[in-house]
UniProtKB/TrEMBL annotation:
Pfam families: LMWPc. One of its GO terms (molecular function) is protein tyrosine phosphatase activity. Coiled coil: none annotated. SMART domains: LMWPc. It comes from Marihabitans asiaticum. This is Protein-tyrosine phosphatase.
Amino acid sequence: MTFRVLFICTGNICRSPSAERLLTSALAHHRSSGEVLVGSAGTKPVLDAAIEPQAAQLLSAAGADVAGFSARRLTPSLLDEADLVLGLAREHRSSAAQMWPSALRRSFTLREFARLVSRITTAELAAVVGDGAPLPDRLRAIAELAPLHRAPVAHPDLDDVPDPYGREAEAFEAAHVQIVRAVEAIGAALELSHA
């Protein structure tokens, strides 16, 4: 069964396509990765635009494919189809919940989700999904376990990846590093059930 991940940011040209392409690249080594569809959309997209050049350069340097991207608008149907919705900031998670209320239970910010899945233990995951389970089942399991680790945080703004659009190169690099680390945490959680 296919598992769909949807990343959301504002313009859909910097943060969400970066997360989309980095997660797609990270999942490529999994045999059943074709059963996971990773996409992105924007709340106020630059429709049909390619990935912003500074973001694209960082993605290419990280080995991610930037070809063929076209920015699109967040729609209720995209939210309805998504099994996991990851906003790049709290405002994007809120926009998803306002547009499609049933998406709330499966919506997080990317950094929040990364923090939560890093708390999942091998034993917890094994109780939900067995060793050697297909990638979509492992993703579904960590998405179900993540909310169990929610707790108040002192600085919720740290769950946001600041928007680098229109800013200096350092802002793009900082956003890229935050996205890479979050994607790595998700990948590590997937490996717990694949060891």
